[in-house]
Amino acid sequence: MRLATLSLIFLLFIMAKTCVCGHRTKGSRAAMANHQNKCKVLLARHEAAAAQSIAAQAAEAAPAPDPVPEEAPSAEDIRAPSPPPRIPSPPPLRRSGRPGRRINDPEPPPEPENTVRPRWFKTSPNSYGLYKVFPHPPTRDPDQSISLDDLCASSDLLVSQKNQPDATPTVPTAPWFPFLNATVARLMAWFHLGTNLKSLAELDALVEDVLLQDDFDVAHLRNFRAARENKRLDDTLASSIDESASAPDGWKTASVKIKLPAPKHCVAEKEAPEFEVPGLMYRPLLEVMIEAFQSPMFEEYHTTPFEYRWDPAYDPGDPDVQLDPADVTVDEHGLPELPAGHQVVYGEIYTSPRMLKAHNGLPKAATTPHLETIIAAYMFWSDATHLANFGNASLWPLYTFFGNLSKYTRAKPSANAGFHQAYFPSLPDSLKDFYRQKFGVAVSADVWAHLKRELMHGIWDLLLSPEFIHAYVHGIVIKCYDGIERLVFPRFFTYGADYPEKVLLATIKYFGGCPCPRCFVDKDQISQMGTKVDMRRRQNIREDTPWYRKTIETARRWIFERGYLVAGAAINRMLKPTSLVPTRNAFSKLAEYGFNFFSMFVPDFLHEVELGGWKSLFLHLIRVLQAYNPVSVDKLNERFRNIPTFGRSTIRRFHANVSDMKKPAARDFEDILQCCIPAFEGLLPEPHNTIVLTLLYTFATWHAYGKLRLHTTGTVSVWRIVTTELGAQARNFLKTTCEDYTTYELPQEQNRRARRQARKNSKSAANTTTAPISKARKTWNINTYKWHSFPDYPDTVVDVGTTESYSTVLGELAHCAAKRSYAKTNKRNFEQQIAAHERRKRLLRRIKQRMNPRVSSKPSNTPSLAPQPKEQRSKTAGNLAPAHDTLPRTPPRQRYHISESKRTWLHALDLPDDFPDDQALQTFIPDLKSHLLSRLLGLAYSGDETQYSDQDLANVNILRERLYTHKILRVNYTSYDLRRDQDTINTRSHPDIMVLAHEDDDDSTAHPYWYARVVGIFHAEVRHVGPKSKNTVKLHRMDFLWVRWFGRDTNHRASWLAKRLHRVGFLSASDPDLSAFGFLDPAEVVRATHLIPAFHYGRTTELLGPSVARHFDDENHEDYEYYYVNQFVDRDMFMRYVGNGIGHRNIAASLTEGTGEGTAADEDDEMDVDPPDSVVQQGGDLGTGDEFEGEDGEGSDNSGSESHSGSDESSEEEETSDEEGEDENGAEPTDDDFLDSAGIADF
């Protein structure tokens, strides 16, 4: 032992005298230290060791995802991302040669004084006070290239064909490749990209897109075979058509393996039997993203998120520009705090706080100096759909959209903005046989449900490939369509699905104790929706935490290794309190990178509101009517049949029996909700009538806020108040009306239950006899997830934008393409054939774009024969609304549009003579000439006709005394969300209009609008003579409306506080002081309005006797006593009554000045709880022509060319209008002028 010790000491002594380089020192230790400080070998070893140590520490500190590949994908497939973060330099060596310790990282060196740090960027407000705030100066803004045609929402507006982007081929092939010639390529594109119906539109497309093209040659169609051309297209590589990475590749086929649990079968999960589910058709997530960013659609993608803000008090005529101080306080997104009085605007994904947060959270270390870092905002939809009316053929597609694109484009099926991502397979029946053979028992319902969840997340585990996760963490370099390389980070924002699929993806139990996929509210507490305690409970949200994942892993270990039941007592004790299920969620692979998959399951307005909460309430109201008096149900059906339609398809004709609800769609329930208040009025006794009407008004208000496409901070605040009120009214209805009436299921519900029971009995013993089924007791149940989700909508709008951006309606519309493709299959293995059709369509769109087709649409002007009236009154009424009067599409810049036809006319002097007893015609000629003279003299419209002398009226000469009649008037207007839309006024079907009111200033009960029914649409050629005339020679074409005025019922309380609609009624024609009839300039019309008869108050004959003014109802000479103004008919109409509409801000100025010229609104007050009262203080409507000075507004004489119907004789007023419509250089107003005035100016 002693000898070993001495040997060790000698060895250490020798080592102390010897360096690693072999140099030996005979001197002291100081000599050896002096040598080591100069030894290059030792210095190199220390540097290598320090670098290796620091690299190891960095690797341990950095998150290491399990499935991330060691190396980036090859450049042939996907460009490698930017290099990893640099390894920090080794710490400096001490005098001894050893690296010094680094406890804390040293502070970065101070920046030079002349260095400008990147900071937020704010644009100047436009004429509506809208401005953008970017986290940093943007490199591109697609809104700068927006045109007037992009803002048009109505199909009746005349818009030019959108210019196709430059699609110059990047490969040396013909544009029609792989086809042999352009003729075949165009024919195949017409076949695959069109509809399956042989419609007139399809025939027109065949002629325009194929037969009339310059490169069409009938010789190219010899020996044509469609099957051969399809195979030619299928066998062609996408790179042969376009060498960019966006060229669509084929679909991939895969199978999913799932582990099978069994009771009392104890085995590790890795060793458990597994079943392979075949038939998964999918495209990699990255491939779809690359295709989207390299396609022409990228021109409209927003790559830099921003916050949209609105200054309601902004005056473009006197802009008070205030520069933000250098030390302004910034919010969590790095943006300056919202100034006092300003509001945040919510609408798009790329303007949402979640997008800003994700953008600011991108890894800065991965950003190279020459690459812009952007986000690809994934938005998913998935839902199973039936492909045929008969049989069980179904498809379960997954669709992918990108939130970088505006929702106004993304929501159009014609934009082809969605991508077919995958077709999910279902569990095959052979699994039951396999399970029985393996374990000797049948598959239980709990195990089957568990395997469904396992299959779904097995699919997503395959989609979330290592390549995708690598791109999620480090980004992926994509050369975008504009030729610029960017570092793109994929991020998941929304997943739209109905509730059964939502719980499948969220891995929670279907309607368990905590049914919500976003929070932990108990099912028994859902009825308290809207209360303060309910709002506090919602703050306890679900999160993908380590505790959650550990709990799931423990449950799975017990199921496989201990043989516990999937839904047994032991597993339920662990998972049931939070409604979890023992399925490993595939999205948890992204949890370590800060992604909480529970947050992407957004509410579903279609299924949760319209087909959920509202449908259940409407159904129970019918049960209440049935319990009170079955005759009330018949009255309800009759009232709905008499409700007029509105718009092209806004309010459709109701079914003959609304209460039966035979196969209604969501749009049918939406129409019912918007029109149901007058239909239910008076069907129940008090106080239940008041309770029901109040509940319906509150629900309709909540629904209207939920359908808005543009929200502000003010509207969201009011929406939250309405949500609280809705919950209170629902609970009041439950404890009063529902308690007083014992309700049973309706006959149709009883029949459905009997059919279900019969199907159940048929699957059981054959000797089972079907007993008669009696009516079951039914109540209104609000303890459902759909009712619970209502308060989540305002918060979701603030987080990711408005509801229509992620509604499942987009997925339902996308199903149409899959169903059309199914019709072209042979019905065997149709999933693969549908995938092939989808690929063909993508390739053909690219080929068609390369060939630059020119699509033109020509409206049909074919007149229809008018019916021949029999009586003289009917003949005159028929001339008031000629059936053959047709209009082409209207240019969006025009204020209104009337036909140029002179085919039908009435003699002005003959009308009073032919009907001397008609009260509507007693003062027809004097009123008409007074109206025309006021416009000829340039007097502003004040609501009352100016009184003139007989000589003044005689100086107004109507050429040949002819009043040319028209059937249709189209009125263009600017909506609350700054879109250009249109209403069609038809004297037979849609005759009701609204104009700005001209009430006395001291009238405390003033209402912002007047209402009228259009009796006739005319134009006349007028010459003004006499001393007051500006020109006694020229003729003036003048358009005017003959209207019958409504008066507002001032004794009826109407507003949000009263929870009632505004009520109007016809003025009595027997009282000359009321001026029941009058004339109106079409430029004064704000919009068409939807007036619903107040059925409860019945009809009357005292207001007007038999008259030609009632030509739309000639057989019944009666009028309804009252009408209700339906403010819920559409989004824009709703915002005209509640205020805070950005596009309506100029109504206050118009009301104050009494002119049509638009000026800035007065300072807008924030909307209070009573919406109708605030509309007088809020701004209002551009629909009065205020945005078109010199064309429709006060800048032009209204007697001139505002009709846009044209005539051979020019007028002095037409010249004036044209002159005032020009700028100082004499240039015509352009689309940019309109965009600036409409609030969509180039920022």
Automatic annotation (TrEMBL):
Keyword Signal among UniProt keywords: yes
Basic residues: compositionally biased ranges: 753-762
InterPro entries: Plavaka (IPR041078)
Top-level division of the source organism's lineage: Eukaryota
Pfam families xrefs: Plavaka
Region (Disordered): 54-121, 745-773, 848-896, 1155-1243
Signal peptide: 1-22
Record's keyword terms, sorted: Signal
Residue ranges with Pro residues bias: 81-93
Biased composition (Polar residues): 854-865
Compositionally biased region (Low complexity): 54-63
Composition skew (Acidic residues), residue ranges: 1160-1171, 1184-1195, 1209-1235
Protein name, as recorded: GLOBIN domain-containing protein
Species name: Favolaschia claudopus
